[in-house]
Write a structure and sequence with these properties.
This protein is an alpha+beta fold. 40% of the residues lie in helices and 11% in strands. The chain has one domain: Class I glutamine amidotransferase (GATase) domain (Rossmann fold). The chain has three helices and three strands. Belongs to the peptidase C56 family. HSP31-like subfamily.
Length: 113
């Protein structure tokens, strides 16, 4: 799959984000976020802080049998990205916390109706 140029993925991701959903990617998958446009024609990642698997890490991975990656996750509103495979657990934690906060706010809202 050519991540940055997959129109179906771009449309689906744009719809999810614009309907208050969360977009998350890790490692090389962050490349799929590069060309996602919102209805206002701005890119999803415009003015966002993101991370992903760098070219330098790719070169190091080929030069070494095993790299001791450490988790690195960046959250910017409803966009959550992880730098490398070790970041997956922390992305899941971020998603879990985000959803708990979202649902607790829903309950507060519902209790005030």
């Amino acid at each position: 799959m050519d991540f940055p140029n997959t129109e179906d993925f771009q449309k689906l991701s744009s719809q999810i984000y614009q309907n208050e959903g969360i977009i998350s990617a890790v490692c090389h998958g962050v490349g799929a976020l590069l060309n996602i446009k919102l209805d206002d024609s701005h890119l999803l990642i415009k003015d966002k802080v993101i991370t992903g698997y760098s070219n330098d890490e790719e070169v190091l991975a080929k030069a070494m049998e095993k790299i001791p990656f450490t988790s690195y996750v960046v959250e910017d509103e409803r966009l959550i990205t992880g730098q490398n495979p070790q970041s997956i657990k922390n992305i899941l934690k971020s998603l879990t916390i985000f959803n708990k906060v979202r649902h607790s706010n829903d309950n507060v809202y519902l209790n005030n109706i």
